[in-house]
Design goal:
Blueprint (H helix, E strand, L loop, with lengths): L6 H10 L5 E6 L5 E5 H14 L6 E3 L5 H11 L2
Antiparallel strand pairs: 1-2, 1-3
């Protein structure tokens, strides 16, 4: 899958992700690895971002995973 070029493209990818697919995302400052479905990760990443006033950074455990990047993008841009 090709990397998205805008937030709207990322949101399209996010909404198309199978609800049962599981991803691993790393919170880069603490090194904590989050595992879960797109909905669970969306909630967790968004919550962390709000608690830290956006001073948090996430990346997929597999940095080539476009769907995982789209989950992060969606959570940061609600």
């Amino acid at each position: 899958m090709e990397m998205y070029k805008s937030v709207p493209e990322a949101l399209k990818i996010f909404h198309a992700i199978d609800k049962n697919a599981v991803f691993s995302i790393v919170e880069e400052i603490s090194g904590t690895v989050l595992h879960g479905t797109k909905d669970a990760l969306f909630v967790e990443i968004n919550s962390q971002s709000e608690k830290c006033n956006g001073q948090v950074s996430h990346a997929p455990a597999d940095v080539s995973n476009v769907e995982a990047w789209a989950i992060i993008e969606a959570a940061y841009n609600v």
